Amino acid sequence: MQPTTRELQAMAAAAAGAGQISMGDLRNNGHAGPGGANGGGGGVHDDFLDQMFGSLPPSAWHELATAAAAAKPPEDDSGMQQQQQFGGPYDESVMLASRLRQNQISGGGGPGSGAGGAAKQMVLQQLADLRQAGHGHGHHMMLQGGTGRGDSGMILPLTLGNGGSGGDVQALLKAAANSAGGEAGVFGGFAGSLQQQQQHFQPHPQQTAPMPNQTFGGGAASGGGAQPQAGAGGGGGGGTQAPPRQRVRARRGQATDPHSIAERLRRERIAERMKALQELVPNANKTDKASMLDEIIDYVKFLQLQVKVLSMSRLGGAAAVAPLVADMSSEGRGGAGNGGGPAAESDSLTVTEQQVAKLMEEDMGAAMQYLQGKGLCLMPVSLASAISSATCQLRPPSGHAFPHHLNAMRQMHDAAVPASPSMSVLTAQSAMVPGNNGGACAADGGAEASHPKDAASVSKP
Amino acid sequence: MHAPTSSRKFKKAFMEQLLVSLQVAGLTSKTMGLQERRDAVRLSSDVAMAVARGRAAPWARALVARHASERRNEALLRRILGGAGYESAAAAGRSRKIVRRSHGACRRKRIKSSVMAASSGSNGGAMVARRMVKKRLQVLRKLVPGGEALHGSFSLLSQVLDYVACLKTQVELMQRLCKGSPAAA
């Protein structure tokens, strides 16, 4: 926020004194910022803006700022004449500020200038219509534009400062005030710009100087208070030319304004959602919306299929699981499940081992089938120790469970039996590692290899 | 990011509910056929997920309602959800069916007309792209529970986001259970 305050102070100083110098300062500050970025993208739009803002006489800022500076009557006349015209670029710049910010928010800030260029055009045209559309509507839009993040609001003044002229300074002022003082600042300034058309210029300038200061001070209340009044009109009405032909040009980009603004908002929200989904769904580096949706669809189908397969497996181990329920609900953490799990498992494991040993004496095939029915497989002891050591490194808390399992397995067989080819121990491991709820499972999974039906390939975190 | 769906609290609640549901489902009986068992497990898992997510998510309500509308699930659902819960779920399911039918008809009519209008246009490329996107959104609507009743692509995408996160958790928890409990075949 530091640069903001600096700029604000600069602007406040300008409001009191020589407008030209402050403009220069601001322009310099603006250039110090993302000047390159702005210059890079949206070149055409920048030219357009420059043209528009360049048309503002440099004295406009001065006239705006100073309260009782010039003689009232001539100012009044020129103000009235130029009110209409000045309103154009000024409004547009303010709107532009908000739209640019919004675009930057949605565009992730990176291609901000490029998006900003398009936004500028839109915004300009919107603003042009806005003036005729009326206050309430405009205020609503400004509210939408204004609410939000002060960070991106900061970028606006800098980028706009590149255009460099009185109107820009106004926009900078409003936008910076906005970021400093919340939406009220924009309201204050915007209200001024809107009101100027209908109100006399005379009473406004007196409030011009105090008004910006109030908004700078973050006076949300004062800014809000200024909004319904005509007071802030002076903030806008510097009386500069904005020839009607530029309004027409701006309009070429959009069809009807309120709809396009709403639609743009909606599109931004959708883009936000798509980005969030991109993080969730693997393989989602597609830029195209349709292919991204394809990926999402496939992933949802895949997950649903996984659930189906998993439910087919021997999840019906509710009997073994029952002791876990009591433990978990009473102690309330997965860690407790750790303590409860291995205890229960060790009993059932011993039973299993005895069963398997008995079966093995009779018929190897039956023993293997029995094991597979449980989702276990036989593996060479060397491999088992290798795996368990690997798992031990990953899950030290549950390491104590391993030796027991290993011993059990060694007792079970001393012959090296090749494990089932579908074994993917890493899968089991990775499934266990995330979260500490699976402590019991890790011990089991590490020692006993994987479920043959395991269709999942969970990536390690 | 949707914090509630991947938080530890959610997982814990989910797991607890899952275990309870599994127990209630009485899967220990050896007389159950494979299909029956699978359906019971699937049901209890889905219900656990929905309950853990809470009433706030439309897809959770729709999921439970979808299960409740099948007659054969009634007993099990009654045991898991309790009488009152089951009644509300069944009511939601019934109203949802009616809504879904009307929505489906509306959408089909609207899509047909929009397609016919859109195909003739100077900006054919964008129209084609938009149509593709719309088609995919339709598919998503069918996949996500309660998607048919959702207006607007934005809310649909939010629900999809939530649902995907919960599905991932569901798969993860079920896998852990699988690995963690050596059970009778």
UniProtKB/TrEMBL annotation, chain A:
InterPro entries: bHLH_dom, HLH_DNA-bd_sf, IND-like. Residues 254-303 form the BHLH domain. Residues 195-207, 439-449 have a biased composition (Low complexity). GO terms for molecular function: DNA binding; DNA-binding transcription factor activity; protein dimerization activity. The keyword NAD does not apply. It comes from the Eukaryota. One of its GO terms (biological process) is root hair cell development. Keywords: DNA-binding, Nucleus, Transcription, Transcription regulation. It holds the Pfam family HLH. One of its GO terms (cellular component) is nucleus. The keyword Transcription applies. Residues 32-43, 216-240 have a biased composition (Gly residues). Residues 25-86, 195-262, 439-461 are annotated as: Disordered. It is found in: Nucleus. Belongs to the bHLH protein family. This is BHLH domain-containing protein. It comes from Brachypodium distachyon.
From TrEMBL, chain B:
The keyword NADP does not apply. InterPro entries: IBH1-like, IBH1_N. Keywords: Transcription, Transcription regulation. Coiled coil: none annotated. It comes from the Eukaryota. Residues 8-66 form the IBH1-like N-terminal domain. PANTHER family: TRANSCRIPTION FACTOR IBH1-LIKE 1. This is IBH1-like N-terminal domain-containing protein. It comes from Brachypodium distachyon (Purple false brome). The gene is LOC100832474.
